Amino acid sequence: xxxxxYKINYITHLNRVSQMLMEDNRLTAWxxxxxxxxxxxxxxxxxxxxxxxxxxxxxxxxxxxxLNTYHKGLYQLQEWSYIAYxxxxxxxxxxxxxxxxxDTTLSTTNKRTRDRGTKSATGQQVSPIIKRKETTNKVLKTxxxxxxxxxxxxxxxxxxxxxxxxxxxLEREAELFFHHYESVGWKSGKNNIQNWQALAKKWxxxxxxxxxxxxxxxxTNHLHAKPTNYEETL
Length: 234
Hints:
It is built from eight helices and nine strands. With 234 residues, it is mainly α. The protein folds into two domains: 132 residues, no CATH class; 67 residues, no CATH class. The chain is elongated and about 65 Å long. About 12% of the residues have low confidence.
């Protein structure tokens, strides 16, 4: 767990992030509910980053009943720079979340992180100006992008099997998908895979298309087959 250099102000941070959530048109009620559930757990962990989360606990607190909605919400909150999500892909080991800090007061106990500010013409101490939201988001997105590239872990077969089951696809397809990408070192061409869920969706679509074409070919061949002449000797 990283050392916390900032003293988080509960009310200030919550007011700031509430304004951001209200202005962000990409968010739905599920995203907001999920964020607040994570925020309260972060508070219970004394605002230390990252902290351990358990799927059942978070889904219950956020009133989310769908596993797919839960995972989609976490990945999108990460994509939009509200959190960093570190999945464990193991039901026995909880995943971890890092909450980005949007408004803080500098700790007065750490001299290296204390900002002395500047003095105005009257000699009064002036607090440092908070950076604009656009600049902050740009920095957070850069950190998130770097973190995603270095922290990818191949999913387990059990996790893939559950994902295929949620999308009404046979377990056999999950086995084929897992063994194929396991054999190529979880690469797509020469590049490392970053989003295996998207690849799995593409796999399912191709599998359904193949089955449909196979069924249609059999049906067509059957329709054009030469009719049997029962007057001939068998």
